[in-house]
Amino acid sequence: MSDIIRLTAARLSEKLIAGELSSEQVTSAHLDRIAAVEPDVNAFIHVSADEALATARDVDARRAAGETLHPLAGVPIAVKDIVVTKGMQTTAGSKILEGWVPPYDATLVEKLREAGLPILGKTNLDEFAMGSSTEHSAYGNTRNPWDLDRIPGGSGGGSAAAVAAYEAPLAIGTDTGGSIRQPAAVTGSVGVKPTYGGISRYGLIAMASSLDQAGPVTRSVLDSALLHELIGGHDPRDSTSIPDPVPALVEAARHGDVRGMRLGVVKQLTGEGYQPGVRASFEASLNRLADAGAEVVEVDCPSFDYALSAYYLIMPSEASSNLAKFDGMRFGLRVEPEDGPVTAERVMAATRAAGFGDEVKRRIIIGTYALSAGYYDAYYGSAQKVRTLIQRDFDAAFSKADVLVSPTAPTTAFPIGSKLDDPMAMYLNDVATIPANLAGIPGMSLPSGLSDDGLPVGFQILAPAKADDRLYRVGAVLEGLLEKEWNGPLLDRAPELEGATR
């Protein structure tokens, strides 16, 4: 089992196609791993063992019959539990949707099923993707495989922890302000937020519709490219879906080259507030890329100083609107008042009070206030103006650089519970990732090494809209340079998880 679960998705694909492994063997090995480490990690809300094995056996039979299948056919995957899955519980990490089984699949899930990827289950997250630590789930904390007393990032800590703990070779995450990239950074995995509209949002339970974007979480840059190409592309059911074809991402990952490329170091994303070990790891990786032929320049994006404030007005405003549908009337939890008349208003109030956690309530209140009469222009309207300024800063920066780079997160994984009582300290974890969401551009986080505390550090790459292939060109080069130094992937250096063998 330990040999199988350590293989990348690309390597598993090669062995499956060559007949050296069966999908049933690969899927069973990962299900065994899940059973062994889940008591410690809690990366999954729901495990779909029977369905995953049925898919695996079907793929094996089709391959044995000579059918030509997708390269990732038979490679198992985990899906963040904010993506709807037909016949499989989808909760968004909330009690208000506990036990809900959707009647349809998200577009990206349809693509996974059509390609023959066994779905291992649904991964844990901060409730409705609102958080940076996966401590706000109604189904318990997820723990970081590097140190079980630390957070795995958020909101998609379950997907990142599942990949980092070798429970799944591939996972789907969503990124509204950094929820793919920040967990990838603190768990030593690779996470990509595609260009907004590059992957269909149909079937994603919306938190902030102008910001949400699904993407891959993996253990290698090539694996992310393979998954990204599979789930990307136009979808007429999503009005924000880009009609352009998916760029040649796998080609870029296989033939990465930074010679002649200009890397823009964002002045506002590298200074005060960044842990010394994080800065040191970032600068060392920057030097490696320069030695490989890249030109390093500094770019100034002054509006980034206001990105966090703008985001925490736009995102809760959209969330308060999107979450209005959870009213105890049509689906999900329904709580009736203990006494007095049973009216729609009183049922809604009782249901939302019981079904939503504190962080969701906090953001709904903020968003409702920002959208209220008399305050709309001062708050939400002003935040949208800042968003425009951030987009202009990116345009100016990309006129000087092919990609922009920064640390993904200002610190390594922090202890569970250490920031729960200080929302502002928690929100600051996304200071480097939020600007990309406000502008709709693609971003990648990949490991750049360990900080002086022995925990992973993430290196962030940002590219212009629809130039996602640049992420993979640069990421593949840095990954290759680092793995030569480390004699293998960074995750091989993670400490042992109790109760299982890596």
From TrEMBL:
Heterotrimer of A, B and C subunits. Allows the formation of correctly charged Gln-tRNA(Gln) through the transamidation of misacylated Glu-tRNA(Gln) in organisms which lack glutaminyl-tRNA synthetase. The reaction takes place in the presence of glutamine and ATP through an activated gamma-phospho-Glu-tRNA(Gln). NCBIfam families: gatA. The active site is at residues 80, 155, 179. Gene3D superfamilies: Amidase signature (AS) domain. It comes from Saxibacter everestensis. It is an enzyme of class 6 (ligase). Its EC number is 6.3.5.7. This is Glutamyl-tRNA(Gln) amidotransferase subunit A. Belongs to the amidase family. GatA subfamily. Keywords: ATP-binding, Ligase, Nucleotide-binding, Protein biosynthesis.
